[in-house]
């Protein structure tokens, strides 16, 4: 499964998963309609206690100087649903990743800031597997396929990435918008190692905006064998 590492911190997932590979999806960026953030703004989130919501709150507090309260968060759904909510006037802004961040800017929702400004060590995406099969041949083979395909995409550069995305049926506008973020510092070039430092950054955001939260287990136990320290 490919998921946010923050999901591992909930302690509710079945099959005792561990992260066996980190993957960059591009910077998580907050976009808002033109103008200064206001105390009356409504911000679209997948849910108020998610990594995307925590990044949004950190960016608005640290970059925009406009902290957000719980009642300003509006649960809307996944990235696509949040992107689609922007032009409806139901919300004023949200957290997005490539290609939706660039598409939002093109639609008149400029960038406020991104996670590299507030939590540069944050791991945005991981591959998880049940602990009991984390070292199995099929898990290692899958991770190797991911490594090889990522390397080939990076070597092929923008033209190769565009061609791959087009083959999967993505609209040309979305493909054009996705490439800069995928090639950026939080994209495909991200180290595949799941490190304690990266997991601590994930936990730090959750702890900052959920003061009573405590991890149910040591963060090291959520990192699969053979990963970074």
What does the model show?
The protein is globular and about 50 Å long. The mean pLDDT is 91. The protein is of the alpha/beta class and 229 residues long. α1 links the parallel β4 (43-45) and β5 (73-75). It has 7 helices and 8 strands, in the order ββββαβαβαβαβααα.
Task: Please supply descriptive tags for the structure shown above.
single chain; 229 residues; alpha/beta; five-stranded mixed β-sheet; three-stranded antiparallel β-sheet; 7 helices; 8 strands; 38% helix; globular
Per-chain topology:
Blueprint: E1 2-3, E2 17-23, E3 29-32, E4 43-45, H1 51-62, E5 73-75, H2 79-85, E6 93-96, H3 100-106, E7 111-114, H4 115-118, E8 125-130, H5 137-167, H6 172-183, H7 196-209
Parallel strand pairs: 4-5, 4-6
Antiparallel strand pairs: 1-8, 2-8, 3-6, 3-7
Helix pairs in contact: 1-7, 3-6, 5-6
What's a quick, concise take on this entry?
The chain contains 7 helices and 8 strands.
**Category by helix and strand content:** alpha/beta
Tell me the series of helices and strands, N- to C-terminal. EEEEHEHEHEHEHHH
Biggest sheet descriptor: 5 strands, mixed
Q: How much of the sequence is in beta strands?
A: 5-15%
Rg, Cα atoms, Å? 18 Å
Distance linking N and C termini: 22 Å
Determine the oligomeric state from the structure. Answer: single chain
Overall mean confidence score, pLDDT: 91
Shape: globular
Unreliable residue runs = none
Structure annotation, total helices: 7
Strand tally is 8
What is the topology, as strand order, of the major beta sheet?
5-4-6-3-7
- Report the helical percentage: 25-40%
């Amino acid at each position: 499964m490919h998921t946010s590492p923050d999901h591992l911190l909930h302690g509710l997932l079945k099959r005792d998963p561990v992260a066996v590979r980190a993957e960059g999806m591009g910077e998580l960026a907050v976009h808002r309609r033109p103008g200064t953030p206001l105390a009356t703004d409504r911000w679209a989130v997948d849910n108020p206690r998610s990594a995307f919501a925590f990044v949004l709150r950190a960016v608005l507090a640290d970059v925009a100087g406009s902290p957000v309260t719980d009642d300003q968060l509006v649960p809307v759904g996944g990235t696509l649903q949040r992107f689609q909510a922007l032009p409806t006037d139901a919300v004023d802004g949200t957290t997005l990743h490539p290609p939706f961040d660039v598409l939002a800017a093109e639609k008149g929702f400029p960038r406020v800031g991104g996670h590299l400004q507030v939590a540069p060590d944050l791991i945005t995406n991981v591959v998880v597997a049940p602990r009991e099969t984390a070292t199995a041949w099929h898990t290692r083979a899958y991770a190797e396929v991911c490594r090889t395909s990522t390397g080939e995409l990076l070597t092929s550069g923008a033209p190769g990435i565009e061609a791959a995305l087009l083959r999967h049926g993505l609209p040309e506008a979305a493909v054009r918008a996705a490439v800069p973020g995928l090639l950026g510092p939080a994209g495909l070039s991200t180290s595949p190692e799941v490190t304690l430092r990266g997991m601590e950054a994930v936990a730090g955001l959750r702890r900052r905006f959920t003061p009573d939260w405590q991890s149910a287990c040591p963060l090291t136990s959520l990192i699969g064998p053979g990963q970074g320290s």
